[in-house]
């Protein structure tokens, strides 16, 4: 046994014993490298210990996806050669979930390893989502594009969900073979723009046994759009009656008579005993005659042209304001854009049902 | 005048000032008037009278529930008996109103009237508080109104301050030309001011014909 092999074994024993690593900051990558060398030296127990240690948090957090995928591949192959098939399958399933597009290099790993990986891959339905991390898209004719890559062909449902998982829109439902391009214009199923905030691009992979595994990509959605609200239409209280009511004639007569009588009696109220002029009679008479004219000319149901014109002017003014705002909002929309920032993918297992 | 009436006037003014000014868009009305005036004066039981036609103008504005109404007239009244003298009359009035309801306006303000004769100049100033009822008679084009007011304070340079009182009212009919900015009003008004300490009682009747413009 060489010194290097002895050191690896001691390190693997320490790793398995849970002792703190006696290596500096680059330890996870170094552990992976040592595990790979142990695998190549056919020292599978040592390799398994080193690789598992490297893949255990918090050390694993400092490995990028590529390094983790490589470590998992070697660990799966190691477990395969340690005759721990179930353990190897579990490692390969973890690898598929980590990167559904990953394939072990057949020049490095023997067919029994790649076959086992393929078996795990075919039984693990999951989808990788690729999209721009930060993109700004015009509101009109703009799309967020995402590419979906499945671990193996299967049926998927792709959608947009709001906070709390509330479904906003289904983008695609059907089989997913090699890859699929998904486009989203920032709108929900009703065609309304999704308000700013966080939404989720969800891909539900449907297994053969009816279960589902959901991949969720958080999207921070900033909508740079400031449209104006449409004015409220004229309320019934603002509109004048367009036809003479049943009581209008009587009201006119009563008004004319009462105010006319008031005009005639003003001198008695204000200056009793004063001999007044005939002016009060002229004004009072005019009021009484007006009331009579109102009574006889305002039959129920008769159109009131003045009120109709006034209401039309009110409605026209409202329409003009609305049209102006529609034009203004269209202009604002043309100039508007939304910015989408993608977060880290989360995989949610939605328990499979028994066959 | 009683303190209660003064308090009512102040309350009305405060309510008018604090009223919602945005409830209705602004509107104005202005016009020129020809006024037939008959003034009856009682001096220690004796009566003298003068009458004439004078010219005047008015302007009114409304914003929300608040309205301001100003009126001015000036002219000469000829004596109606041999013992009276010719007098010039100048009258100004400024009222503030609060629309408590579409048909009811509470108003307060001041009216000043001056008689100028070759011998003396008399000024009668009254602070008033009253209500005005206005209602449509034919559609919205023809409306009638009646108003009554009572003097809250009266000032007159007639030699005494005792027993001062004043009240008045007017009624009329207004025609707004449909679809046009013109309007026409015929109104009758009467008011009486008394200063018992000086043995004076002034009664003035007005028959007013006004033509004007309105907007918007």
How far apart are the termini of chain A? 51 Å
Overall geometry of chain A comes to rod-shaped
Q: Indicate the percent of residues in helices of chain A.
A: 40-55%
Instruction: Give me the secondary-structure category of chain B.
Output: mainly beta
Uncertain runs of chain B are 7-23
Distance from N terminus to C terminus of chain B (CA atoms, Å) equals: 40 Å
> From the helix content, strand content and strand pairing of chain A, which structural class follows?
alpha+beta
Total DSSP E strands of chain A: 10
Put simply, the count of helices of chain B is 1
Helix-strand string of chain B: HEEEEEEEEEE
Biggest beta sheet summary of chain A: 7 strands, antiparallel
Quaternary arrangement of the chains shown?
heterodimer
Largest interface: A-B, 35 and 36 residues
Strand order of the largest sheet of chain B: 1-2-3-4-5-6-7-8-9-10
Overall average pLDDT of chain B: 86
Provide the helix percentage of chain B: under 10%
Describe the structure.
The complex is a heterodimer of chains A (about 350) and B (about 220). With about 350 residues, chain A is of the alpha+beta class. Chain A is built from 9 helices and 10 strands. By secondary structure, chain B is mainly beta. The radius of gyration of chain B is 18 Å and the shape is globular. The interface between A and B is large, with 35 and 36 residues.
Short account of what is shown:
The complex is a heterodimer of chains A (355) and B (216). Chain A is α+β, with helices and mostly antiparallel strands and 355 residues long.
List the keywords.
A: 355 residues, alpha+beta, three-stranded antiparallel beta sheet, B: ten-stranded antiparallel barrel
List the helices and strands and how they pair.
The complex is a heterodimer of chains A (355) and B (216).
Chain A: H1 3-16, H2 27-40, H3 44-54, H4 65-81, H5 85-98, H6 111-123, E1 127-131, E2 134-138, E3 144-150, E4 154-161, E5 167-176, E6 180-184, E7 197-206, E8 212-224, H7 248-270, H8 279-297, H9 305-335, E9 337-342, E10 346-350
Antiparallel strand pairs in A: 1-3, 2-9, 3-6, 4-5, 4-7, 7-8, 8-9, 8-10
Chain B: H1 3-18, E1 27-43, E2 46-63, E3 66-79, E4 87-101, E5 104-116, E6 121-138, E7 142-156, E8 164-176, E9 182-195, E10 200-215
Antiparallel strand pairs in B: 1-2, 1-10, 2-3, 3-4, 4-5, 5-6, 6-7, 7-8, 8-9, 9-10
């Amino acid at each position: 046994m060489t010194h290097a092999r002895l050191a690896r074994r001691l390190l693997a024993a320490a790793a398995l014993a849970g002792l703190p690593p006696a290596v500096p900051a680059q330890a996870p990558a170094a552990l992976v490298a040592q595990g790979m060398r142990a695998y190549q030296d056919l020292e599978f127990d040592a390799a398994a210990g080193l690789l598992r240690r490297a893949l255990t948090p918090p050390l694993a957090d400092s490995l990028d996806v590529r390094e983790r995928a490589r470590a998992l591949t070697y660990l799966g192959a190691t477990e395969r050669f340690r005759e721990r098939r179930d353990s190897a399958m579990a490692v390969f399933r973890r690898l598929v979930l980590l990167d559904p597009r990953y394939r072990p290099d057949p020049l490095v790993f023997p067919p029994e390893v790649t076959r086992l990986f393929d078996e795990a891959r075919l039984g693990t339905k999951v989808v990788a989502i690729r999209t721009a991390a930060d993109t700004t898209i015009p509101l009109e004719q703009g799309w967020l594009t995402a590419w979906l890559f499945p671990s193996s062909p299967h049926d998927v449902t792709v959608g947009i969900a709001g906070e709390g998982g509330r479904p906003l829109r289904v983008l695609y439902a059907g089989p997913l073979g090699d890859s699929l391009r998904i486009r989203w214009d920032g709108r929900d199923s009703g065609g309304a723009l999704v308000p700013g905030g966080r939404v989720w691009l969800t891909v539900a992979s449907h297994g053969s046994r009816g279960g589902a595994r959901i991949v969720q990509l958080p999207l921070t959605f900033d909508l740079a759009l400031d449209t104006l609200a449409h004015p409220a239409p004229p309320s019934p209280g603002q509109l004048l009656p367009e036809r003479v009511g049943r009581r209008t004639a009587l009201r006119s007569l009563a008004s004319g008579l009462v105010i006319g009588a008031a005009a005639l009696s003003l001198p008695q109220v204000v200056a009793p005993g004063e001999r007044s002029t005939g002016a009060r009679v002229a004004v009072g008479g005019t009021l009484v005659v007006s009331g009579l004219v109102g009574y006889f000319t305002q039959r129920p149901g008769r159109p009131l042209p003045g009120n109709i014109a006034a209401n039309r002017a009110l409605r026209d003014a409202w329409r003009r304001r609305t049209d102006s705002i529609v034009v203004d909002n269209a202009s604002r929309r043309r100039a508007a854009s939304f910015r989408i920032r993608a977060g880290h993918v989360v995989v949610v297992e939605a328990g499979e049902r028994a066959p | 005048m009683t303190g209660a009436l003064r308090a009512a006037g102040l309350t009305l003014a405060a309510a008018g000032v604090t009223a919602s000014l945005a409830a209705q868009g602004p509107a104005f009305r202005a016009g020129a008037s020809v006024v037939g005036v008959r003034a009856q004066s009682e001096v220690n039981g004796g009566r003298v009278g003068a009458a004439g036609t004078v010219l005047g103008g008015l302007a009114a504005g409304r914003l929300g529930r608040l309205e301001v109404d100003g009126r001015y007239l000036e002219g000469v009244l000829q004596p109606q008996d041999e013992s009276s003298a010719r007098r010039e009359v100048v009258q100004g009035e400024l009222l503030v109103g609060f629309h408590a309801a579409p048909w009811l306006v509470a108003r307060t303000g001041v009216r000043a009237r001056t008689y100028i004769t070759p011998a003396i100049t008399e000024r009668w100033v009254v602070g008033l508080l009253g209500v005005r009822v206005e209602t449509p008679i034919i559609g919205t084009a023809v409306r009638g109104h009646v108003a009554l007011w009572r003097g809250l304070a009266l000032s007159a340079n007639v030699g005494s301050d005792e027993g001062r009182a004043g009240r008045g009212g007017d009624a009329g009919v207004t025609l707004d030309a449909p679809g046009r900015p013109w309007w026409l009003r015929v109104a009758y008004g009467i008011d009486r001011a008394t200063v018992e300490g000086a043995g004076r009682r002034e009664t003035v009747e007005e028959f007013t014909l006004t033509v004007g413009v309105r907007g918007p």
